[in-house]
Amino acid sequence: MASNPIFAEITSVPELIRQELANLDDAVRQVFSPDLCRSIGRVYLCGCGDSHHAALCSQLAFESLAGTPAEAQTSLQFARYSVDFLPVQASSSLVIGISVSGEVARTIEALRRANACNLHTIALTASPNSRLAGSARQTLVASAPPIHSQPDLVVPGIRSYVLNLLALYLSAILTGERLGKLTSKQAGSLRNDLLALSDAVENGISTNLELINRHLPEWQEENLFLFAGGGPNFGTSSYCAAKMLEASGDFASPVDLEEWAHLQYFARHPTTPTFIISAGERDRSRALEIARAGIGIGRRVALVAPQSYSRLLEGDYLHLPFADGVPEVFSPLIAWIPGALAAARRAELLGEPYFRAFGGGRNPEAGGGLSRIQTSQMLDDTEFKHQE
After folding, report:
1. What CA–CA distance (Å, rounded) separates 248 from 238?
2. How far is residue 122's CA from residue 131's CA, in Å, rounded to a whole number?
3. Which of 79, 114, 252, 386 has a 20 to 30 A CA-CA distance from 205?
4. Res 169 pLDDT > 70
5. Are 59 and 234 in contact (CB under 8 A)?
6. CATH number, domain with residue 242
7. What is the pLDDT of residues 350-376, one digit of tens each?
8. Which of 15-19, 245-249, 320-324, 380-384 has the lowest mean pLDDT?
9. CA 132, 121, 124, 203 torsion: positive or negative?
10. Is 315 exposed, middle or buried (0-12, 13-18, 19+ CB in 10 A)?
11. Are 158 and 19 in a shared domain?
């Protein structure tokens, strides 16, 4: 996969973490002042696509490290439903709108409606001059330097997603430190953990690349891929399904780890490739049960889990490991690797252009052609009151 653009993005991530973590931490410190941190009663994280997946992955960090109630929502859910029914004390809420381009209409709408409700708003974006940045009280810039020689090359997002994860984790750590939930020593140790994960990411890429190259061709005839995860890694399962859709065009779907047992377990097609993603902590026992069930009914199970899981299961399955000892709260920073590698390899095997080469009405105009990601109508408060 040496000439594979997604693979190039994936292999660049360890150095990206090493180069950008300190810069991101400085940016976070500029935005999350002591006064702001003390004022936060609840955090809402909203975005679309990869940005929503990053929000899902970081909710636990705000809850466990900052001690702050947090909720990840799609931008549509927050802008057109939740914001109208927030509790009276919601003025202490912080809303973080996430969009790499800063031009996603629904996330812009979410921040504008949050401003109208007198909530504190932060735009997390790579585009400081975007409409999203202009719609927030503050802007946290997370911009990945380009690595491709072709400026117009559009590749499923890898580097931008990792930077958003890092920015959100660092925000949670600093908030916890400034609220006294973490000592300075504990906060510093957590930042060092993030930096050290660059080595684990590098090793995970190397290990899983060989496994993906060897086994994915055996699944050539499949056209449906499932990704199951719980807790912060439901976000990972969503992200990995998105990469498969964007790269190969195969139908790929995320599913909550528990819900697989209630729903997908009964699907007709016996060999559906099913990636089960586990951090090895709160989700451990259920992930193993789900994996055993999948193996037992003939699914092509790929278990994305710590290395030590290799001794815990029997039967025909593929173990795609990452390092033992990665804290569950940070596990999304490494658990995405096998799914992204599988997406890159699958597109290569099928000879599929990324994003279907934006054909059939999917052109980049308006951020997605007919779907109008960037030019979708935004409803203001007057229109909402009229609807009511």
Report:
1. 16
2. 12
3. 252
4. yes
5. no
6. 3.40.50.10490
7. 999 999 988 877 887 777 788 999 999
8. 380-384
9. negative
10. exposed
11. yes
* CB distance 108 to 82 below 8 Å: no
Does residue 172 belong to any structural domain of this protein?
A: yes
Considering the domain boundaries, does residue 361 fall inside one? Answer: no
Residues 69 and 119 reside in one and the same domain: yes
> Could you tell me if 40 and 142 lie in one domain?
yes
Shared-domain flag, residues 117 and 239: no
Say if residue 333 is in the same domain as residue 275: yes
Q: Does the pTM of the predicted model rise above 0.90? A: yes
Structural domain count of the chain: 2
324 with 373, same domain? no
pLDDT of the residue at 388: 41
Residues 322 and 307 sit within 8 Å (Cβ to Cβ)? yes
> How high is the pLDDT of residue 367?
79
Task: Tell me, yes or no, whether 135 and 277 share the same domain.
Answer: no
The domain in which residue 165 lies consists of 5-182+367-387
Answer whether residue 200 is part of any domain: no
pLDDT tens-digit readout, 137-147: 999 999 998 88
- CA 361: distance to chain centroid? 26
Q: Do 170 and 222 belong to one domain? A: no
pLDDT reading at 174 higher than 50: yes
**Tens digit of each residue's pLDDT (9 = 90 or more) over 79-105:** 999 999 987 666 789 999 999 999 999
Beta strands 251-256 and 273-277, pairing class: unpaired
pLDDT tens figures, 258-317: 999 999 999 999 999 999 999 999 999 999 999 999 999 999 999 999 999 988 888 999
